[in-house]
Design brief:
Blueprint: H1 13-23, E1 27-31, E2 34-38, H2 45-49, E3 50-53, E4 67-76, E5 85-95, E6 107-118, E7 121-125, H3 127-132, H4 142-152, H5 156-160, E8 174-181, E9 184-190, E10 195-201, H6 212-229
Length: 234
């Protein structure tokens, strides 16, 4: 089972799933034995295309003719790292009528199960947890922010490595930012036959996209202090 850190230094499973569902550009809908690729979600994500609601709890038997459905979404790193797939989200449930791929209206879906799978394992998320979780304020801008860091400020990445505890030492062929969220920045350290993800947590969670810059500058300032003091992390 997936374990959640008691410290708010990383997103919860529900927060990650909600962010992926909110900002996804595409998803696969599996129903009636067919797989339909929805490649343009018009910026509304899966949550704008499909409306999730609680399972049937009314008196008597549930309505007939409900159609099983599965939504499949992937979270892919925007940076050119090894093994770019970061997570998969699968939501299952029931539709009141057969799915219409060409419909412009939101599809009503009776929630069954939501599963997040990533390098930490598999997490099962309830509808209440999903509804209570806030989408990450950085999620929609993450790709452009990481691309900007890699393309325009590559010299900052070795500096940020000084914050990694314990110090990665020799054998790291390449280090790239693989993710950024309200809680911090994640670097991927690639070795000859393996890789490791390390988090550099922000001093406090970011509540608005405009506050990200200050947190990044705080990390860089801490790294420069280590560089100037000559303190190498071991």
């Amino acid at each position: 089972m997936r374990r959640t850190s008691p410290r708010a230094s990383a997103p919860t499973a529900a927060e990650r799933a909600r962010s992926i569902l909110t900002v996804a550009h595409s998803m696969t809908v599996v129903t009636d034995g067919r797989r339909t690729e929805i490649r343009r979600l018009d910026g509304s994500g899966a949550m704008g295309h499909v409306h999730l609601h609680a399972p049937f709890e009314g008196p008597g038997a549930p309505p007939d003719g409900r159609v099983p459905v599965r939504l499949e979404l992937t979270d892919v790193a925007p940076s050119p790292v090894r093994e770019r797939l970061r997570a998969r989200v699968t939501v299952t449930g029931l539709l009141a009528a057969p799915y219409e791929p060409g419909s412009t209206d939101s599809t009503c879906m009776e929630f069954g199960q939501c599963v997040l799978e990533d390098q930490h394992g598999r997490a099962y998320i309830t509808l209440q947890e999903l509804e209570d979780a806030e989408p990450d304020p950085i999620a929609s801008s993450e790709a452009s922010m990481l691309t900007h860091l890699m393309d325009d400020h590559p010299e900052l990445i070795p500096l940020l490595l000084r914050l990694v505890r314990p110090h990665p030492g020799r054998g790291v062929h390449r280090a790239l930012p693989v993710g950024i969220d309200r809680y911090g920045l994640t670097l991927r350290l690639e070795r000859a036959r393996s890789h490791t993800d390390v988090r550099l947590p922000f001093s406090k969670p970011v509540r608005h996209i405009d506050h990200v810059g200050a947190q990044i500058h705080a990390l860089l300032a801490a790294a420069r202090r280590l560089a100037h003091s000559g303190r190498l992390l071991t």
